[in-house]
Amino acid sequence: MSPNVFQRFFKTSEEPQLYYYCFVFPILMPVSWLFFFAELGKKSMLRAAELAVLADGISAPHPRSGCVILGTEGDEVAKAFQRGQGGVPSEVLALDEAGDLAQGSSVYVNLEPRHGLAAGDDETVAALVRAGVARVVVGLRHPVPQLRGQAIHALREAGVQVYVLGDAYGEGGAGAAAAEAAAACRLANEALLHRIATGVPFSVFKYAMTLDGKIATASGHSAWVSGPLSRELVWAERRRSDAIIVGGATVRNDNPHLTTRQDTGHFPMRVVLSRSLDLPEEANLWDTSVASTLVMTQRGARRDFQEYLRVKGVEVIEFDFLEPSAVVNYFAHRGCLQLMWECGGTLAAPALSASAVHKVMAFIAPKVIGGGSKAKSPIGELGFVEMTQALPLVESNFDKVGDDLLFTGYLPSSGGLAAAAAAAAAAPLQPSSGGRITTAGHEEQSVGARVRALPAIQGELRGDGDDDDGGDEDLDMELCTAECEPEPPAGSQHLRFYKAWDAYGALSNFAPFPIDMQAEDGTVERWPTVEHYYQAYKFAGVDLEGSRATYEAVRTAATPEEAAWRGRRAMNKSPQFVNPAWAEQKFEVMYRALEAKFRQHPGPRRLLLETSRMGEVEEGGLALFEDAPHDAVW
């Protein structure tokens, strides 16, 4: 092409728009985005990540979501975080706060909004579009494969500008500001990223040692190695965990409480691993009024002591062979996101050897106690004989905490947070533990081939309004009764679900699907979730002020998780407030609530009916089991 042609094509006034769109716009768009994010976005995205973790201690671990809205003048007009799974999304809360100021605004979220199979609705995307926001900046694509990219695509289809850190402009391409913000977004959901990448809960190994590497004196005394500020960080880490794991020696020597030092909110399960059940009859952990306790042992160990613990309200699980890998797989089944190992060296060594631990959280106190080989070290024998065998930690960091030093780093089982994020981003579309098909003997089978129809029905599960034929279809639901087996007969298949954000989360009682139920006076009440309704009706029909107050507190709880712990705690501490006929009525109440949910919401109904079609090709049929941590009735 001759220079004259170039001049005519690009320099003359005859083709100004073509010149602009072909050359100027492609260059200026990423540059303008870089400037826009560097000047306005970094602070807002970091703020969204900070907001997201405010749910720690309020609710059990769940995908952490924070939202910041900047008005048309660049000022912050609203902010919010999601309190728990099944709760109101952070974006919806922030939009409600912003009101008319959301029109033309910029919305910053550390995590892509949910939109698709796991939640089964489009509440967040619809709210953003309805509010007329101009752009949405996403810090992290949703790691759950069924949700990844769904909201981004839906928003763009609706005409909303969407920018994703690490996508088109990349962390390197968007500069240091975007890289820092993206790292903060990964850290806010490191447990979720590791869960998706590895298939098991994110595990943190915490210990405190002296400068000479001891966690206790030669006599076994260990309170306190670290200072008060370090202990506060430990309590905070417990609050963001599903379970705290110790060995039998810790129970015998320290008699710990393993609490979060808070009166309300989330209380992680205390877990004791002991093959022999050589445990004391009196221990702080056996008091389950404070928090639940689970003891894991090998089959047949001290059956009389097992019964003793169960009478006290302690859950006991037997394994054919108790080892760390079996423990993390068990908690993966229960939908856990994070485990905290506070064990001694005897248990820590096999946990590290089995790659059951992803991160180390080590406090180093400015103390020396000596004691030689009699004083215990944080980690027992690993069998290494050369320094080249040492486990290399990556992305390590030191912080000063009072007089102590806090070291954090990721083990090879993690590969580091960046590696976990990359692995999670490449995770295939298949159900995680919340959608596992297992036999009655708990032997896992791949469910990928059995859910080949799920991508096809994904769009239908968003609740698209009127359903011409689903409403009249027979749901054929059958709940377990008090006489039913907690597991199906040998040879049959069952699909386990529990968490609202997992693969089959739309089936969960915690899933954010409100139900309209007729009250005793004939009026219709709207309940936020099935869990709200079920927990509140424990106290319905009792003419006591405490019963009425508890009923209302549960009904208006901010999240289904809060409704659950309010209902359970009141039932345990004030049984006089509970309807005397609850044991017989609870199945009818649950059936009523579930029927309303599945008839009133086409998305969950279609997912439920799809599992029935899956059952038709399973030998022995397919049973749905809510994998609840407190009972196996359902």
Automatic annotation (TrEMBL):
Q: Which species is this UniProt entry from?
A: Cymbomonas tetramitiformis
Matching Gene3D superfamilies: Cytidine Deaminase, domain 2 (3.40.140.10), Dihydrofolate Reductase, subunit A (3.40.430.10), YbiA-like (1.10.357.40)
InterPro entries given for it?
Answer: Cytidine_deaminase-like (IPR016193), DHFR-like_dom_sf (IPR024072), Eubact_RibD (IPR004794), NADAR (IPR012816), RibD_C (IPR011549), RibDG_C (IPR002734), Riboflavin_Biosynth_HTPR (IPR050765), YbiA-like_sf (IPR037238)
Q: Which keywords are on file for this protein?
A: Membrane, NADP, Oxidoreductase, Transmembrane, Transmembrane helix
| Pathway stated in the Swiss-Prot or TrEMBL entry | Cofactor biosynthesis; riboflavin biosynthesis; 5-amino-6-(D-ribitylamino)uracil from GTP: step 3/4
Residues spanning the membrane = 18-38
**Domain of life, source organism:** Eukaryota
Extract the SUPFAM superfamilies matched here: Cytidine deaminase-like, Dihydrofolate reductase-like, YbiA-like
Q: What is its EC number?
A: 1.1.1.193
Lineage at the top is:
Eukaryota, Viridiplantae, Chlorophyta, Pyramimonadophyceae, Pyramimonadales
Occurrences of domain NADAR (ranges): 497-634
Q: Which GO terms describe its biological process?
A: riboflavin biosynthetic process
- This protein's name: 5-amino-6-(5-phosphoribosylamino)uracil reductase
